[in-house]
Design goal:
The structure holds two protein chains of two kinds. Chain A is mostly beta strands. Chain A contains no helices and eleven strands. In chain A, a hairpin with a 3-residue loop joins β5 (45-49) and β6. Chain A starts with a strand and ends with a strand. By secondary structure, chain B is mainly β. Chain B has strands at residues 3-7, 10-12, 18-25, 34-39, 45-51, 58-60, 68-73, 78-83, 92-99, 110-113, 117-121. In chain B, the strands form two sheets. In chain B, strands 2, 4, 5, 6, 9, 10 and 11 form a seven-stranded mixed β-sheet that branches. A four-stranded antiparallel β-sheet of chain B has the order 1-3-8-7, with no helix packed on it. Chain B is globular, with a radius of gyration of 14 Å. Classes of the chains: A mainly beta, B mainly beta.
């Protein structure tokens, strides 16, 4: 199975900050990496698919990059509504696997 | 609006069974593979199973293989998860999830999630 490792596990940043979350796969997954946001008490929401494609309706301050084993989610200017937990997920092969999550808090 | 509504969760003793259901609406259900994803209390997301759009292929997480069975009824727009030999570690919120793309069962992410149904296994 492909293991997904996210870092950091949590972060605190101010409104307007640039935030970066990284995700590493235990083997090459090409570009089959997706990012989700989950607010407390809500279902996850797809933000980025296949590493860098922005899901419809997602603000352009979110962006993704990477290929192979190393990937990055960037929030260019953090907003109050961006607080929550972010998960990466590989979609290269089953069993699909998620990273452990990054909890983003607003200072 | 595209919708997935799960039901069937509850409290059960270890070793017992439970069947989850997911009602899909406002999209062409029989064109999409479908997934179950779970989340234990206070924990991260764990993929459980996927079924092809026509039910011909099914894949499972190692943690549930041999105990859980995913199935669907395209005539009723329904997805199911039969859970047997339940364990305490199966306690979680179970989401019914649709992939983003009809031509791929999982490559392009999962863009429609239900609100989940809670399964609690304890004695």
């Amino acid at each position: 199975d492909i293991q997904m490792t996210q870092s950091p596990s949590s972060l605190s940043a101010s409104v307007g900050d640039r935030v970066t979350i990284t995700c590493r796969a235990s083997q090459s997954i090409s570009g089959y990496l997706n990012w989700y946001q989950q607010e407390p008490g809500k279902a996850p929401r797809l933000l980025i698919y296949t590493a860098s494609s922005l899901q419809s309706g997602v603000p352009s301050r979110f962006s993704g990059s990477g290929s192979g084993t190393d990937f990055t989610l960037t929030i260019s200017s953090l907003q109050p509504e961006d607080s929550g937990t972010y998960y990466c997920q590989q979609s290269h092969s089953v069993p699909l696997t998620f990273g452990g999550g990054t909890n983003v808090r607003i200072k | 609006q595209v919708q997935l509504v799960e039901s069937g969760g509850g409290v059960v003793q270890p070793g017992r069974s439970l069947r989850l259901s997911c009602a899909a609406s406002r999209f062409t259900f029989n064109s999409y593979g479908m997934h179950w994803v779970r989340q234990a209390p206070g924990k991260g997301l764990e993929w459980v199973a996927v079924i092809w759009y026509d039910g011909t292929q099914k894949y499972y997480a190692d943690s549930v293989k041999g105990r859980f069975t995913i199935s669907r009824d395209n005539s009723k727009n329904m997805l199911y998860l039969q859970m047997d030999s339940l364990r305490a570690e199966d306690t979680a919120l179970y989401y019914c999830v649709r992939p983003r793309d009809t031509n791929s069962h999982y490559y392009y992410g999962m863009d429609v999630w239900g609100q989940g149904t809670t399964v609690t296994v304890y004695s």
